[in-house]
Fold this protein.
Amino acid sequence: MTDTRDTALPAASAGQASAGQAGAGTPVVTGSRMDRVMWATVDFVRRHWLFCLVLAGGLMLRALAQIAYEPALLFIDSKKYIFGTDYVNTIWGSFDPLGYSLLVLRPVLMSGGNLAYAAVVQHGLGIAMAGALYALMVRRGAWRWLAALAVAPVLLDAYQLNAEQTIMPDVLFETLVVAGIVLLLWQPRPGLFLVILGGLALGTSAPVRQVGEALIAPALIYVVLAARGWRIKVLHGVVLTFCFALPVLGYMTYSAVVMHYGFELSNMGNADLYGRAAHAADCATLKLPGYERPLCPRPETAATLGVDGLVNAPESPRVMYQPVNVQAGILIDTLPWQKAMAYSVVKQQPLRVAGDIAKDSVKLFALTRYTQQGDTPISRWQFQFGYPYYPPGVTWHGPNAVNKVFRRTGGGGRARVHWKADILLRYYQLHIGYTPGPVFGFGLLAGLAGIFTFRRRRDPGPALACLLVTGCAVAVLLGADLYEFSWRYQLPALVTLPVAGALGIVAVTRSIRARQARAAGVTAGTGTRSGAGLAKGTPAAAAGPAGELAAAVPE
């Protein structure tokens, strides 16, 4: 015999609720807590099977990346983030914001120094981003299969995997952008608490990557449009701006007072501006003072070096041009001249600058990942056969050897590669493991279409959600392209444009259905009025029902 008290059934959790209807003599079937958890898990997998399938693939790929390259991958700038907050040793300097060092690397190094833990944390952030975005889209009305497809890029794209395995700030930046979006969109009209948290998350992205400063524009527009009443609009706008600025000002104060790098996020703005302007300039027609003329490169030099080379390469004009103050016997600092030349290009040749930026921006939507002459090599963001090195900054031996970096951090051991795993990852990345550009193009177009479904008298719905997500995508992607195109800077597209596309599909679908419902309502109202007129002989007899029906149709 079987004791029903020990039998676990899927409907066991509903047993107590129906006990009153079944009567006192009916036995109540209940399961243990483990049984309820098991059946809840089975039910979740059944309803979200496609997301679970994609999630399993993402987990497997991340485990493979963690095994393939130990303890973690290093890039040219990795040492800056590992050692840059050591203001006593100023050899690395504060060239870029070091929020990544403070929020991720310093806690990891203080807890043991094994940089493999930083890679594990970043892989966890990748999984968390996918889960949060999936939950958001389902909550905002997206079909489960559509939401699962929208998060597939962040889970399965090998360039994302490479970034998570590398000691660089890109994954943390993506996470903060996603956190801000999810917090602001969790409710159709975010309350004050969510506005505070969303502002803090988006504001914290700027000390991680300076392009995060551009996120204030779409976020502010969204919270103002989503709020009801001008008092709430003003309150939410002011609170969001304050919370966004708080982390930025906090980091700038820390940079000036503690690290002694100055009250700034980065000191590379003028150099990056020079690189873009010099690459776009037509030096033959540009009017410059004689002392600035050597800073303007020849066309073949600009094409060969590209924007990145014009900023960093030893053969760049800004590096090779070293005028001397004869009276003082010292070299003249050309940074003010570089800034002046860049502004001259922007003022005199704005269309050339805009065209240069647009030419770089459309590369994201290409069918395959490619680079043109002068672009930052895409191989920097690809898995390699063996451990990758980037001399002279990251080398196999010598003062910049990767093993010295790992040893100096206090753990992780020597750089090592699992040769089968690295082969699998490289072939996967080069052939199928990347998101095609048309996917991003469709996401952008669908997101823009969703924005245009907005109607002021309606509930915000997905239209304003499209505004926020698409706006954040344009802000960070175009903001980076203003200075330099790099496939590394296109990573935020993985967590924004597919989501914008999914929400855009929802918004357009709802708008079409609403129009069809209004058309059906008008047709029904016309038929009722005509029938009443024929029966009664007076059109006024049908005015009441027709008016009520028209009022029932939503705006």
Remarks:
- Confidence is low (pLDDT under 50) at residues 1-29, 532-555.
